[in-house]
Amino acid sequence: MSFIKVLNFPKANLKLTKEGEVLFVWCIIRKKKLVLTPEEWVRQHAIHYLIEELKVPIGRIASEFTIKVNELTRRCDIVVFDAYSKPKMIVECKATDVKITEQVFYQIAQYNNQLQVDFLMLTNGINHFYAKVNYENGNPEYLESLENVNW
Q1: In angstroms, how far apart are the furthest CA atoms of the chain?
Q2: 27 and 46 Cβ atoms separated by less than 8 Å
Q3: Could you point out which of 90, 94, 109, 116 has its C-alpha 20 to 30 Å from the C-alpha of 138?
């Protein structure tokens, strides 16, 4: 599969299987195998990064979390919750060939209008952007990493 590229994440121990010509990946959050698409490749690496590197408890992570935006059903790629089940971070994942543009920032901002999280992460597996939401002035404060966040 040509989209399986080395990403700018630590190596993730993904469980891949093949049925005919279709490649699947086991999602440790949703506890099922999923068709391995370019975006899913990035999403699964981001999930493993959250758990293994940032030490986010697995029970506080939701994948493909459904919300309503302007009466339309949308899915956040990943939502991380705090110890009180309040959404704390939204992670938006794109395939490696998708640039992180203003439109992607707009998409995650729409999701955050519903969830009101403290942190945002956007990634295409190569480039990662992290921000803390400043609700006093409405602007994101860009961060170098999420390593100092208390999960």
Answers
A1: 53
A2: no
A3: 94
Tokens of 20: 């005919």
The residues with which 26 forms a beta bridge, in sequence order, are 33
Domain that holds residue 130: 16-143
**Residue 125 phi, psi dihedral angles, 5° rounding:** 85, -25
Q: What's the pTM?
A: 0.93
Q: Is residue 33 part of a domain?
A: yes
CATH of the domain at 105: 3.90.1570
Residue 54 gets which letter from DSSP? Answer: S
Give the integer Cα–Cα distance in Å for 80 and 151.
9
The pLDDT, as a whole number, for residue 6 is 86
Q: What total of structural domains would you count in the chain?
A: 1
Q: What's the pLDDT score for residue 5?
A: 81
CA proximity to 75, closest of 61, 88, 89, 64: 64
Question: Contact, 80 vs 91, CB < 8 A?
Answer: yes
